[in-house]
Amino acid sequence: MIPRILYLHGAGEIGGAERALLSVLERLNRELWMPLVACPVEGPFVNEVRSLGVPTYPMLFPAWRKLAHLYKRLPALRKLSNLLQEIQPAILHANDMYWVPQAIWAVKQLSVPVVSTIRQNLHPIRVRQYQLNRAERLITVSEKARDILIEEGVPSDRVHIIPSGVDVDRLTAESNGTCVRRRLGIPLEAPVIGCLANVLEIKGQDILLSAFADVAKSYPDAHLLLVGRDTSLFGGQMHALANQLGIGGRTHFVGFQADVRPYITAMNLVVLSSRSEGLPVSLLEAMAMGLPVVASAVGGIPELIVEGVTGRLVEPENTSALREAMLDYLAHPQRGIEEGKRGKERVQRNYSIQAEIQALEELYHSVVSREAQCDGSSCFGRSKKKKA
Fold first, then answer.
1. Measured CA distances, 316 to 137, 140, 245, 274, 313 (Å)
2. How far is CA 324 from the centre of its chain?
3. How many CB atoms sit inside 10 A of residue 363's CB?
4. What is the C-alpha to C-alpha distance for residues 294 and 215, in angstroms, rounded to an integer?
5. In this model, does residue 387 exceed pLDDT 80?
6. What is the DSSP letter of 239?
7. CA distance between the termini of the chain
8. Which of 15-44 are b and which e, b meaning 16 or more Cβ less than 10 Å from the residue's Cβ?
9. What whole-number distance in Å separates Cα of residue 243 and Cα of residue 251?
10. DSSP 8-state symbol, 92
């Protein structure tokens, strides 16, 4: 029987983590693995999973560290445990660290190894809070996160770096941003600074808007294009902030877009002013399409962007540094073109989806082989019970 992998994902909207998982689900070798997904019953994410022909199971995902969700925890654990007994997966893969405690407790009396991907800018305290040391394998998207896990006591042989990958061929295919510019009323010759991220406080669009307001004084024809879900309270605040700063007419919020390629090609520069990040898929996509990038030096971003070679790094929440970086690119467009070419080459060489899938499948083989050797005794420090 083909081994089943049950992925846990507790978000219904689509952002970087969801797009990364969808890419894996689309390309995983179905002759070797059968992917299944437990996720919220509503939202664009579950619809995208189903469109790939992957079975889905409705699941509860209470916040593990919120007291208000405490009463929801036991029903969620029971529901997941029952599902595991029903479908008998070979691996339970949490697509983010937030669902590791739920996974660990659900498999307590079962013979199912837990794997988790750590996508955030990991803080040491989170290793204990989310019981990451109890997972059989941890996948990090950056060296920084791996180092933190090891420093916090997770054995190095249980930590693997597998950076998120993108479909380079698809992203380098012909795409035209002219239609996007015309629809939004942006002149074809106007410089466009773009941001690819859901509009959330952690993504720092308030920093970007403040910096762009200063940029606009020197470049009155410049426009700002924000691609990402903007229906949150913070999103509404950013709409208001753009108007307060006098840039509302040149700031375009276009919401979530399933295909970002036409929007990227409508941009001259991509900026990500996040307060915290792991390894943003949006930057990989922009670089794969040859765009110069400016981003906060947080999480795994300094591992992706080589300062002055494939882009620019700025300190988080440093509005003046972000402004100066954007002004520099607008003043020297040829420099941006050259850095964009080098960034594209770097992504093609180191961050392809094919490399990610190969590494992930090798890890799955390792876990399944190790499980087969455990024969009812002890494996990864976890008591084992044979499946019925």
1. 31, 22, 21, 7, 9
2. 27
3. 17
4. 14
5. no
6. H
7. 15
8. bbbbbbbbbbbbbbeeeebbbbbbbbeeee
9. 9
10. E
Q: Which of 48, 64, 68 is nearest to 56 (CA)?
A: 48
DSSP for 285-305, please give it. Answer: HHHHTT--EEEES-TTHHHH-
Closest CA relative to residue 223, chosen from 171, 257, 182, 273: 182
CB count, 10 Å around CB of 248? 15
Residue 185: partners with Cβ closer than 8 Å, 6 or more residues away: none
Percent of the chain whose predicted confidence (pLDDT) is above 90: 86
DSSP secondary-structure letter at 22? H
Please state, in angstroms and rounded to a whole number, the distance separating the CA atoms of residues 218 and 329: 13
Query: What is the rounded distance in angstroms from the CA atom of residue 354 to the CA atom of residue 165?
Result: 7
384 CB-contact burial (10 Å; exposed 0-12 / middle 13-18 / buried 19+):
middle
Return d(Cα 359, Cα 370) in angstroms, integer: 17
> Please, what are the domains in the chain?
4-165+352-383 (3.40.50.2000), 168-350 (3.40.50.2000)
Model confidence at 213, pLDDT cuts 50, 70, 90, reads: very high
**CA–CA gap between residue 94 and residue 38 (Å, rounded):** 10
Sheet strands side by side (includes 192-196):
251-253, 223-227, 192-196, 269-272, 293-296, 312-314
| Spatial distance between the Cα atoms of 152 and 146, rounded to a whole number of angstroms | 10
**Do residues 57 and 83 touch, judged by C-beta distance below 8 A?**
yes
Above 60 in pLDDT, residue 384?
no
Q: Helical H runs in the chain?
A: 16-27, 44-51, 70-87, 100-106, 124-129, 143-151, 168-171, 178-184, 205-218, 233-244, 261-265, 281-288, 301-304, 319-331, 333-350, 353-372
CA distance 44 to 271: 25
For the entire predicted model, the pTM comes to: 0.89
DSSP, collapsed to helix, strand or coil, labels residue 214 as: helix
Cα 196 to Cα 233: distance, rounded to the nearest angstrom = 18
Residue 8 gets which letter from DSSP?
Answer: E
> How far apart are alpha carbons 41 and 43 in whole angstroms?
7
The owner of tokens 């899938």 is 357
